[in-house]
Specification:
The protein is mainly beta. The protein has 14 helices and 62 strands. The strands form eleven sheets. The protein has a 17-stranded antiparallel beta sheet that branches.
Amino acid sequence: MNKEQNVTFINKFANYIGLLIISICVTLGVFAITNTKNNDPLSNQFSSELFNINSSKVQQSFTDLGNINRNIPKDTKNEGICLRYPTYGTSLENITEEEKNNLIKESSLIFPGTNTYTSLDKDGNYLLDGNLTGKKIYKHTASIDMYEGNVSDEEKAVIRKIDINATIWRNYITGLYAAPGEIIKLEISQDDLEKIGSLTIAVGQVTHKNTINNIWKARNDFSRMPTIAGLFKTSETTFYFGTPMGGPIYLYPEKLGNFSCTISSAVTYPFYIHGYTTYEDFNKMSQSSAPYFDFEIWDKGVRHSGPKSRANFDYENLLKVGDLWEKICRTSNRVPTNSSADSGVGYIYDPFVAAGEAVAFVGGRIAVNAPLYWMHGALNYDSMVNSGFWGQIHEFNHHFQNYGMSGASTNEVTNNATSLLSYILYTNISSYRTNDDSSLSGWNRYLDPSISLKETLTNTSSQNGLNSYADIIHSFGVDNFIAATRKDTKKYTPTSWYQALSEVIDYDFSYYFETLLHQQIDEDVKNLYKDRKKFIPIASLYQTGRNYYSEDVEYTSNTVKPFYFKDKTDFILDFDKFLVYPSEFSCSIKNITSLDNGYLQKISDNKYRYVPNDKRKLSGEFKITFHLENSSVANDDISLTFNLGITNGNPEKCIYRYDSQIYSSPDEALNNNFDGYSSKDVISTKSTFLNGISANSIGYLNGKILIPSDGKYSLCLRAGRGNHALYLSSDGVNYKKYLEFSGDKNTFDNEASHNVVLNLKKGDFLYYKQITISNNHPDAYTELGWSINDNNTVSIQSTYLYDVNATINNSSFVSEVVYPYTYNENYIFYKSDISKEKIISVNQGAWDDTTKIDNILDGNPDTFYHSNNGNYLSSDNPFEIIIDLGESKTWNSIKLTGRQKGVNHLPIEFSIFGSGDSNKFEKVAEITKDNAIINGITSSAVFEEKEFRYIKLIVTDTSLQSGNKYICLSDIELSYTQNMVSKSNNLLEYYGDFSLNNKYLSSYGHLIEGKGTIKYTGDFSNFVLFVRQKSACQIKVIFDNHSEIINLLANDNLSPAFIKSLSKKSQHTIIIEVLEGTLSVDSFMTI
């Protein structure tokens, strides 16, 4: 385990280089850059727009084969049970018990079920188990404005081929929407249907596990129909379906595996699958009138599913959101889960929430039910990394909290601790901390280790809140914390958590647990670690990390972003105020290391002024060592790490005070530059709220707002007890008065007299001046708030507020990949060839003429060898066979296959011997039931590499649990395999004329195709390039100063273009030149 958690937090917008080229010509899902000016094969590099930095798999593709007419219903109908129906998002007022019963009854009649219908015929007639019911599909009254929108009658239906390699037990996005009351057709081949068993089709909003979020009678918030989705199950090659309510279509196969199907007559709806969806595809989908949206990290990731109106349609933003959620998924998956996390987590954003503000369904459903307005916050990158999204990630991590002190896996604390890990690693929020504790408010405060430790030290009762976990994370880092959670899986006691930490981290935690957390730890457990260094917590507002020791080696845990002083202020490090440690200790500064940029000027023993040489640069990391003194608690000195910077100032807040009232209107005061005041206070502020404006005073706020996204902005001035005005400008020079009123408007609402609506673009600046003149009240006030795209009006977040003269770096914050997802796969370099094999000897006869030993060499899986009747297998009577493999090769694995049907006797205890001449055999491996791999009708084993031509196999036991044991085999296969790492084609370097194609099933969501040169440099001993060739191609492969020409044939399936086994693992460079045709790169493997 790497105990050093030293994460560098640097804005590296260059990581998203592919995003800057999106405006170049894009055609048919293919993003191309062509070199026309330079013949140097390595002079022009192609960068995929799908900069999927974590390279997770996406094994799904869509191909639209054309358009088809829709069968649009002319009218809406209903079952005639209800007098009124809810409109999506608006609850029925004063709903009665009878109305609730009627709505629930009507919902049960309009969706498929055992008493309604199970399919449609081509004319839309309901069929129940194949029989006509006398009813027909129609468009329901309550389908109007479902998901906050409607499918336009002008929207064209498509014929879409969908290819899926179902590797996860969940449903799969189709990107197709069944309009209410319309008939949809699905076609699938008999072969594919047999492979997957059956196919469940969901229509409407469901979780990725096909859970329907129903409203039940006890609830009064019927903000839509009680049921809005239905499930169909088919084992037919042609199947018709649809519902009166319509909705997005999902496919859930009964068995895992590859399959293809075609769906006709549905319309497209917008979706974004990270690593698959291209810029052009997304822009095209965004034009659809279908009112739904899905965002997905495909493999063991997350899905955000809800109304299109609540989504984000900035493609560049979604690329970064995808990267962020991918990192979160990979981090949380390292923590013990209390759900089937391999399926990922599915969010449904719905006006009906089953419990509380939002609820996580832990266990088999692996879902989150959240309110509609949360969806935008889960898909807005800048807001997520600068302000936070605690509600969304809190619910996500209810699926990853199977550890800790709280007594159960369903508590509301350890999911927050897991969330804090991603907040630390992947957000920039901690960089906004200041010497005002309120700068990091709410859950964000735990990103400041000093605030967390203050809570710990001020609490005098037993505690196991987030602070108790945050203290550990900030002291020892994310890696160590995750390792401790894995040691503590499903134990849930203070003692077990204490022991888990002690096993991972080389400290005695008794002082922290017993004295500070007031927890009781079992004495016998405490005694195991009593001779170690004691953990004494210490934290500072300014710190970025802390040192710790493991086996006498010093490590640094960096968990906080650099601390930024506001420009035009005094850059003071005040450790009298902003150093936190237990009160029974005294503390002194023992040593300060040098700074790369500037120096610390001593003011007093615990106070220093930072003097930078260059305000544009960080100070560079430096350490301050503190000595904590307590005669009864022995401890070592502790070093905190610091990194300081200077950032733009906050907006200015001015209070002008006059001997008597001079100005009665804001215009008059502003035009005279507030002249005539007797005193003036100028304060920087992190908000647009200004209060405490007393009689004969004027409050004035001046700043600028960075607009976070394109949209409609409703700016609301709430104010009271005076005369108020709001002036706005797009350039900071020419201001216009937009609002003026007297008296009180003390809430953010949509009333026109204190609202202004503007359409603004992401990256714009909006300059503002707020003025309030007190009407002789001691506390007049003003605050500017906003609503974005008709969401709730809220205070403007401090992260968007700047001094009018601030210079803004528009580069987005980018975090590093800390836990990349690695696909380790066994790759078979070669197998034994039965056409070259010959049986030399066998010591047991056959059951009869149909089960003779030669059957294992006939290549027919339906024939097999069975040892003779009464010749029971045992260690005293083993089965022995010698086979000539036909060639001497290096082997390292064996697979023994039993018969397809009937009782199997798979070897589970056997020995392998090898020989070069069939005379002298050496033992190669001893396989026991503990290391034999049983999978269905096969028994496999991996052994140390050995070269031989002849194999002797001696079997002493089989898989049969009871009864007489025999040997039963249909095949014996030797192979040479390597556990290799599969990697995305994005990680290769491309030079020349290449393009991106996502129209075919591939390993990582897209192929990269073209002509030119491909280069890869890395540490490896084996390299395999995988292609999906739609046409023949000739390539030249250059490696370690050797080259060869390879001809590739057309092959729709994934296949190796070449395999290079090099002498040893070291840095190698492989260059691939395309000589003729087009190369279609899928992925590659290295070891």
